[in-house]
């Protein structure tokens, strides 16, 4: 019974992971200090940053100053 629950949980995690990777929305996860720990492929398409460039950085790297402050809110 426990083994079945573990396998079911693993399958759910794989499905969720695949959904995040293929999402049409940008997904960014940060640690408690606000540093990027994960970003999905859509993030790189939208921002132009590679995952390697973004890891460990704060999402404020996206604030170029070229757009109106309302856009960043």
Could you characterize the architecture of this molecule?
Helix content is 49%, strand content 10%. It contains four helices and two strands, in the order αββααα. A two-stranded antiparallel sheet has the order 1-2. The mean pLDDT is 89. The longest helix has 21 residues, at 2-22. The protein has 73 residues and is mainly alpha-helical.
Number of helices: 4
Largest sheet: 2 strands, antiparallel
Order of helices and strands: HEEHHH
State the end-to-end distance.
Answer: 48 Å
Bulk shape: elongated
Counting DSSP E segments of at least 2 residues, the number of strands comes to 2
Mean pLDDT: 89
Radius of gyration: 16 Å
Structural class: mainly alpha
Percent of sequence in beta strands: 5-15%
Kindly summarize this structure in a few lines.
49% of the residues lie in helices and 10% in strands. The protein has 73 residues and is mainly alpha-helical.
Question: Key terms for this structure?
Answer:
73 residues, mainly alpha, two-stranded antiparallel ribbon, 4 helices, 2 strands, 49% helix, elongated
Topology of helices and strands:
Layout: H1 2-22, E1 28-30, E2 36-39, H2 41-47, H3 51-54, H4 69-72
Antiparallel strand pairs: 1-2
């Amino acid at each position: 019974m426990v083994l079945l629950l573990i396998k079911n949980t693993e399958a759910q995690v794989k499905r969720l992971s695949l959904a995040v990777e293929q999402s049409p929305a940008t997904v960014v996860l940060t640690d408690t200090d606000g540093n990027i720990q994960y970003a999905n492929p859509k993030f790189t398409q939208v921002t132009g940053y590679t995952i390697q460039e973004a890891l460990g950085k704060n999402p404020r790297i996206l604030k170029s100053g070229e757009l109106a402050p309302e856009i960043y809110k």
